[in-house]
Amino acid sequence: MSYVFAAPPQASLAVQGEEARFPVRRIFCVGRNYEAHAREMGNDPDREPPFFFTKPADAACDTPCTLPYPPLTNDLHHEIELVIAIGKGGANIAVDDVANHIWGASVGIDLTRRDLQADAKKTRRPWDWAKAFDYSAPIAPIKPIKDVPSLTKGRIWLAVNGEVRQDGDIADLIWSVSEHIATLSESVTLAAGDLIMTGTPAGVGAVVTGDVITGGVEGIAELEVTIGPRA
Asked: Which of UniProt's keywords are assigned here (predicted)?
């Protein structure tokens, strides 16, 4: 097959303990999946059906890293999240069968231009400009699922310059990993290479140039991201 210009490189992420990399196809993100975070954002945390938004595959980037402070914002926020890597595709996946479709897990940050998101909410416009910008999904090396101790419990945390800001447990997910992936598969056919960012606990906040963000999910992965000068 030929193209009118050179095809872009395949987006990919590092894998723990392996030279081979995980090819990223799409990134799906679950909104408001921790009760305390839903409340801090002024929303009702009742167990309504999960909703999703997306980031482009090439928003994913390896950690540790230094990322530029993005344009068009003065209110860049961190959101630490458990990340699920899909290794087997499918549609209408049963909740009890989701585990057979998971390749691995990691931890990532859903970087958010909060001021743009607030404007989008007021005008009832899509969140794309707030969520789907360059380098908006730094993610630690993926751990193969056979080595993951649990996807139902474990501390999830984030610190900025050593000060802990987010500190929760994935047991507090409103919709479990199996439940929200099954729901997602009712709308789109999942495929190997898809990533699902599963929502963030309370404590989100702003970061500025020079800040060093650290975080992790217990037993799965840890990351470090430095915010560089404005792009």
From this structure: Isomerase, Metal-binding
